[in-house]
């Protein structure tokens, strides 16, 4: 497949703005923005640290007009294809530089020596500038930390970067010299006035509008496509070296597959909806109020801006974090192939390790789920070696509802990392449902759960460790859901 | 100005240049390396034909194509540039593809196949030791009579301590670019801490005299020891390709290749025996260190030596016997990493003390404090503690951070909380400064003053983020009495500075800064003579400089820096100076294992607090407070960055950073998705660093002390804080001295008892009866 594609990789004319320059290019669709910046444009401020989204040294901003307003998002350029940049504003570190002086973020990092070897620094500056552009409220240290949570620094230990962030909190926060920025209607203009963004940003909305729709040649996808690329956050990690020379279909050129809408008690989630979009949806927040805290444990902001829910499910990793949550929510998947569509329950979707009920030419278009009844809690637990931006050793989600007198009315429990597929604990849930929750019942439920799992030892942990984690994480859900019925002390004493 | 990191402005704008950021010369080729797919085997055949025909491929080279000596071993000649008959670790470089693009080169790699007859793979240093796979000769440092002392001890405990390796994870992977110049010469741009090592090795493999190879280093995107010796092979490979093809060639390792092909911090396994009197005085200590050296000698023998030097950390122990062996295994050759074997040595004595404290039922800190080395007491290698500040830093930390009250708070917290437990631990450090290979303690500086008064400074030191350039500018400005803005530190280049020592051993500022002061003194000496003539006075020694002005007998003259420089030029006085510095009074006798290897020691004490979540087995490092001995700082901000950054790496080494090797010798934590270094969330926000005040160092430039390595060892305190928290949760649990203390180890040690009770006992309660 790949050998054929190498002869003539698919190219289309992609037009976008790169910093303050208009670009029309016909490099292959699957080429990484990182490589394009460094090799084709000699914009070397963007660094390659890992080429798998795990270090943030290649962070850039991508801007587009959303409902008439420019919106920027940080992404890792090592996982982002050029083919998707049509009509966008691509901002590398060079595009944030002001002529002849440092912007306040850069100045704070210089003043506080937040940079040593410097290789990670442009990525940090991009993340921190983005936070100033996008923060909903006045900046906080924690806000900065979450903004650069996908950026690794090996030199400073982050202490100096925290101090630089605190300088910015002071200068831009209440009582600071630039506090007014947070009241401004147009944040970007205010930041331009404060010398944080170069003036050309003001031109971007109309510049982008002037770029027309992209013309795509219709073709029979099934015959010519080597790879379907959605967020690319896993595909580029696994197949990154093949993609620039392969025929790729950029799914994100199909915005109709994005977005979340509610119809009655059903939530329709476009397959290309990103993790961040999911977490930002008011509909989702209504039944998972803790969603932002859960997301903080999943990937990093730049990755969550790219990673799609459908991609997480199709990737079929036994430890997909979003998959665990969608499983607990009893999600149905909708597939399209030509004109025909088909529905599959997520809990019946996986057949074995990385195998599932899908024809190669089917494309997932939508996910559907019933909005949980009032009083239902949705819980997510994850243990990984590092708390943030790490792959789970074991993860678990739960949808739990108890009556006032402690009867389990609903128990949808999932575990990841303890079998060849993401697991929905059918027997355990069935056992619990209709029973009065007590310490003893829960112990028995755990016993049943252990009959449903089969962890193996690997680099993320030994089988024993995973069994222990399965016990603990499931317990964490019920202790949160009903602390008066299942006591943590009793569970720790088992 | 001198308190800044001078590169930071460029860094924040993304305009600082690393090897491959410089615009590529026309026609530049790209190299990629084929590494062994097995950890140990005899090479039967290497099939290159398919790869040779792949698009864009210009050439493929193997060990046979090396025109000079196929050998880059820096200490022992046991390391071919490209393996030929035998491969000895997974990823061992066997062939190099050179192609028109990086993509072409990497694509061709997938077409190479090797027939290799598998041989036995050893990954454990104890197994290697048993089998006699030992590099160099095992060493023993001894003082007093341990056997006699143990007989007199009230308490003797023995145990085993294991500590893992550590990936450097410099954000910039290994890379080099080689450009042919006229007449069989090469200019090599390398990301190396050791330009001279690269120069020598390139010349060796190409069969050229050293002067044909010029090595130039702008800066490194992090080194941490990982580019002290192990940048060499990649530079040699680029040089080989450039030499053979006649075209510029660049080799940039992809992260996954860098992870699997390069060596790391040495893992160690050790047996210890410690004896104390019942009041907590340590009387005797024996230790056997088994270093996991990997497949090649590299710098392992020097690392091993430093393990011995630091086997008693900050303590005075009258009877010591420390044995250490470099054990050859089938892992990539392990190498220098910040601390250079010292941290591994310290981990064992700290384990032994913790063990003894638990057996004796006394506070670990009590034993630590009681045994701190004092002025005039001897280390086991004969050197006496001079300006010993172990006790001072301990006491200042204990009082300044109100440790007694702190510990009380933690005990109260633990009494009240059942779901989480806290632990607090002290970590004193004592680290010797100087290369232990005495001859390396030399450096040169070349200073040019241009007629506009601007100054160019070259030294053999490499800027790798540690702020060397910023410190050198500070030193030169102070030595010349001029504004730092006038001074530019040049790239590190072997044609300007010959035979330089690597930027390592924390000594780069000491050595190159001292040479810089000598160069400045020489220039000012010439200026004094000139000015004496101009002023018509005899006593040139009474001419002084301050703030770019000249004073005679304390009186301001009309002479400014610029005027002096201009007059010197017109008077044909040399405006360039080359100076040489050799650290005085350091020596070591390897036959007797005794001497004075270090110019001085750095001392400090840290306290670390952690909290463990007993349900999930996860933890947070909550705060670290430390008192550190810096001498008189040259650049407080840069030094603070080194302390905090070193601490962060130490914490990472003790907690998250787990190198996992499969039994077949393959690295299973082979990507950033499986090898986790600390992110902002994983480190404490609450870090307090206090510099020891009134702490001069007559041996360091302007009274300063080296800073690079010692702070890393504060991180060891995190392990013992986690152990203290585990003890609070499970007083009777069997705990191991086995770092890193990953969440997995916390969980398994916490819940060891219940490991199987949940899923291996048959169910007794019927579901119907469970609802009571």
Automatic annotation (TrEMBL), chain A:
Pfam families, per the entry: CO_deh_flav_C, FAD_binding_5, Fer2, Fer2_2
Residue ranges of every copy of the FAD-binding PCMH-type domain listed in the record: 193-374
Superkingdom as given in the UniProt entry: Bacteria
UniProt keywords, alphabetically: FAD, Flavoprotein, Iron, Metal-binding, Oxidoreductase
SMART domains on file: CO_deh_flav_C
InterPro entries, per the entry: 2Fe-2S-bd (IPR002888), 2Fe-2S-bd_dom_sf (IPR036884), 2Fe-2S_ferredoxin-like_sf (IPR036010), 2Fe-2S_ferredoxin-type (IPR001041), 2Fe2S_fd_BS (IPR006058), Ald_Oxase/xanthine_DH-like (IPR016208), Beta-grasp_dom_sf (IPR012675), CO_DH_flav_C (IPR005107)
Gene3D superfamilies, A to Z: 3.10.20.30, 3.30.465.10, [2Fe-2S]-binding domain, CO dehydrogenase flavoprotein, C-terminal domain
Domain 2Fe-2S ferredoxin-type as annotated: residue spans: 12-96
PANTHER family named among the record's database cross-references: XANTHINE DEHYDROGENASE (PTHR45444:SF3)
Protein name: 2Fe-2S iron-sulfur cluster binding domain-containing protein
Automatic annotation (TrEMBL), chain B:
Alphabetized Pfam families for the sequence: Ald_Xan_dh_C, MoCoBD_1, MoCoBD_2
Keyword Zinc-finger part of the UniProt annotation: no
Protein name: Xanthine dehydrogenase
Keyword DNA-binding: no
PANTHER family referenced in this protein's UniProt entry, alphabetically: ALDEHYDE OXIDASE 1-RELATED (PTHR11908:SF132), XANTHINE DEHYDROGENASE (PTHR11908)
Signal peptide: none
Domain Aldehyde oxidase/xanthine dehydrogenase a/b hammerhead positions: 13-120
InterPro entries, per the entry: Ald_Oxase/Xan_DH_a/b, Ald_Oxase/Xan_DH_a/b_sf, Ald_Oxase/xanthine_DH-like, AldOxase/xan_DH_MoCoBD1, AldOxase/xan_DH_MoCoBD2, AldOxase/xan_DH_Mopterin-bd_sf
Alphabetized SMART domains for the sequence: Ald_Xan_dh_C
Keyword vocabulary terms for this entry: Molybdenum, Oxidoreductase
SUPFAM superfamilies attached to this UniProt entry: CO dehydrogenase molybdoprotein N-domain-like, Molybdenum cofactor-binding domain
């Amino acid at each position: 497949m790949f050998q054929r594609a190498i002869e003539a990789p698919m190219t289309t004319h992609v037009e976008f703005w790169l910093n303050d320059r208009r670009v029309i290019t016909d490099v292959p669709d699957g080429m990484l923005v990182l490589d394009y910046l460094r090799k084709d444009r000699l914009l070397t401020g963007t660094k390659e640290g890992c080429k798998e989204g795990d270090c943030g040294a290649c962070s850039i901003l991508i801007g587009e007009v959303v409902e008439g307003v420019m919106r920027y998002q940080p992404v890792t350029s090592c996982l982002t294809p050029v083919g998707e940049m049509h009509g966008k504003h691509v901002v590398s570190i060079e595009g944030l530089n002001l002529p002849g002086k440092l912007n306040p973020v850069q100045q704070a990092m210089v003043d506080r020596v937040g940079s040593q070897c410097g290789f990670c620094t442009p990525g940090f500056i991009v993340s921190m500038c983005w936070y100033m552009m996008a923060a909903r409220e006045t900046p906080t240290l924690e806000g900065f930390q979450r903004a650069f949570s996908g950026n690794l620094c090996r030199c400073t230990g982050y202490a100096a970067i925290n101090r630089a962030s605190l300088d910015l909190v002071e200068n831009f926060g209440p009582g600071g010299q630039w506090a007014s920025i947070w009241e401004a209607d147009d944040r970007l203009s205010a930041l331009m006035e404060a010398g944080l963004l170069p003036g050309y940003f003001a031109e971007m909305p109309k510049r982008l509008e002037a770029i027309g729709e992209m013309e795509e040649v219709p073709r029979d996808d099934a015959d010519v496509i080597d790879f379907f690329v959605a967020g690319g956050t896993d595909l580029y990690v696994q197949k990154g070296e093949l993609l620039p020379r392969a025929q790729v279909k950029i799914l994100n050129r199909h915005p109709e597959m994005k977005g979340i809408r509610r119809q009655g008690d059903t939530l329709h989630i476009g397959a290309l909806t990103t993790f961040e979009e999911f977490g930002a949806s008011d509909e989702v927040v209504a039944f998972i109020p803790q969603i932002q805290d859960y997301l903080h444990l999943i990937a990093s902001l730049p990755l969550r801006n790219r990673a799609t829910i459908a991609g997480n499910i199709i990737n079929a990793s036994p430890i997909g974090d979003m998959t665990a949550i969608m499983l607990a929510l009893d999600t149905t998947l909708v597939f399209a192939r030509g004109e025909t569509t088909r529905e599959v329950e997520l809990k019946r979707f996986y057949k074995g390790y990385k195998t599932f009920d899908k024809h190669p030419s089917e494309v997932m278009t939508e996910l559907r789920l019933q909005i949980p009844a009032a009083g239902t809690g949705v819980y997510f637990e994850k243990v990984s070696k590092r708390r943030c931006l790490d792959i789970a050793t074991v993860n678990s989600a739960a949808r739990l509802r108890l009556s006032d007198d402690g009867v389990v009315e609903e128990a949808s429990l999932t575990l990841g990392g303890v079998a060849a597929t993401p697991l929905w604990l059918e027997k355990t849930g069935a056992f619990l449902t209709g029973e009065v929750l007590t310490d003893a019942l829960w112990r028995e439920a755990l016993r049943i759960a252990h009959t449903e799992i089969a962890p193996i030892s690997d680099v993320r942990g030994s089988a024993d460790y995973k069994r222990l984690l399965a016990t603990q994480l499931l317990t964490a859900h019920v202790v949160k859901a009903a602390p008066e019925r299942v006591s943590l002390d009793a569970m720790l004493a088992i | 100005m001198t308190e800044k990191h001078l590169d930071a402005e460029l860094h924040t704008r993304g305009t600082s240049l690393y090897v491959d950021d410089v615009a590529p010369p026309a026609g530049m080729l790209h190299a990629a390396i084929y590494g062994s797919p097995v950890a140990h085997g005899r090479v039967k055949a290497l099939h290159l034909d398919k790869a040779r025909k792949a698009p864009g491929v210009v050439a493929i080279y193997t060990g046979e194509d090396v025109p000079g000596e196929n050998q880059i071993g820096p200490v022992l000649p046991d390391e071919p540039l490209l393996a030929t008959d035998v491969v000895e670790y997974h990823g061992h470089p066997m062939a190099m593809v050179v192609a028109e693009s990086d993509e072409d080169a990497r694509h061709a790699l997938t077409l190479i196949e090797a027939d290799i007859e598998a041989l036995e793979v050893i990954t454990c240093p104890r197994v290697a030791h048993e089998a006699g796979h030992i590099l160099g000769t095992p060493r023993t440092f001894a003082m007093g009579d341990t056997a006699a002392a143990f007989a007199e001890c009230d308490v003797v405990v023995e145990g085993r301590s294991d500590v893992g390796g550590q990936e450097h994870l410099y954000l910039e992977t290994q890379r080099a670019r080689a450009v042919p110049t006229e007449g069989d010469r090469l200019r090599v741009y390398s990301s190396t801490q050791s330009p001279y090592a690269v120069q020598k090795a390139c010349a060796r493999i190409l069969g050229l005299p050293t002067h044909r190879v010029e090595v130039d280093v702008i800066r490194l995107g992090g080194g941490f020891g990982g580019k002290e010796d192990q940048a060499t092979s990649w530079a040699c490979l680029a040089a080989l390709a450039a030499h053979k093809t006649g075209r510029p060639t660049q080799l940039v390792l992809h992260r996954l290749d860098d992870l699997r092909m390069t060596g790391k911090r040495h893992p160690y396994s050790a047996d210890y025996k410690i004896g104390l009197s019942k009041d907590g005085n340590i009387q005797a200590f024996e230790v056997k260190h088994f270093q996991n050296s990997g497949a090649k000698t590299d710098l392992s023998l020097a690392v091993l030596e430093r393990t011995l030097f630091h086997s008693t950390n900050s303590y005075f122990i009258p009877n010591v016997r420390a044995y250490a062996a470099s054990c050859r295994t089938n892992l990539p050759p392990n190498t220098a990493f910040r601390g250079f074997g010292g941290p591994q040595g310290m981990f064992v004595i700290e384990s032994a003390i913790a063990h003894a404290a638990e057996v004796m039922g006394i506070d670990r800190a009590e034993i630590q404090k009681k045994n701190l080395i004092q002025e005039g007491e001897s280390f086991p290698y004969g050197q006496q503690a001079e300006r010993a500040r172990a006790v001072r830093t301990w006491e200042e930390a204990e009082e300044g951070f109100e440790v007694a009250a702190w510990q009380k708070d933690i005990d109260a917290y633990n009494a009240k909380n059942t779901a989480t437990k806290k632990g607090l631990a002290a970590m004193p450090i004592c680290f010797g400064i100087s290369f232990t290979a005495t001859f390396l303690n030399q450096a040169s500086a070349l200073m040019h003053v241009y007629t506009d008064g601007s100054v160019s400074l070259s030294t053999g030191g490499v800027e790798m983020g540690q702020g060397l350039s910023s410190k050198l500018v500070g030193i030169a400005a102070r030595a010349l009495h001029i504004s730092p803005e006038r001074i530019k530190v040049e790239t590190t280049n072997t044609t300007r500075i010959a035979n330089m020592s690597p930027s390592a051993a924390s000594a780069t500022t000491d050595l190159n800064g001292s040479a810089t002061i000598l160069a400045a003194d020489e220039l000012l000496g010439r200026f004094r003579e000139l000015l004496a003539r101009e002023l018509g006075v005899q006593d040139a020694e009474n001419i002084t400089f301050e703030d770019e002005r000249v004073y005679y007998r304390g009186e301001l003259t009309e002479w400014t820096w610029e005027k002096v420089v201009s007059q010197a030029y017109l008077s044909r006085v040399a405006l360039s100076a080359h100076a040489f510095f050799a650290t005085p009074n350091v020596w070591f006798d390897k036959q007797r294992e005794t001497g004075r290897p270090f110019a001085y020691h750095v001392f400090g004490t840290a306290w670390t607090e952690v909290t463990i979540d007993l349900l999930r087995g996860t933890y947070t490092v909550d705060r670290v407070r430390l008192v550190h001995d810096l001498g008189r700082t040259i650049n407080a901000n840069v030094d603070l960055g080194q302390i905090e950054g070193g601490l962060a790496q130490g914490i990472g080494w003790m907690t998250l950073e787990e190198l996992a090797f499969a039994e077949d010798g393959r690295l299973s934590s082979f990507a950033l998705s499986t090898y986790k270094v600390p992110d902002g969330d994983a480190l404490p926000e609450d870090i307090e660093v206090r510099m020891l005040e009134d702490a001069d160092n007559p041996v360091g430039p302007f009274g300063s002390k080296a800073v690079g390595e010692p702070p890393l060892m504060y991180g060891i305190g995190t392990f013992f804080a986690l152990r203290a928290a585990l003890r609070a949760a499970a007083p009777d649990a069997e705990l191991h001295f086995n770092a890193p203390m990953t969440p997995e180890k916390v969980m398994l040690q916490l819940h060891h008892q219940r490991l199987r009770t949940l899923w291996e006992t048959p169910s007794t309660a019927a579901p119907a009866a469970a609802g009571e």
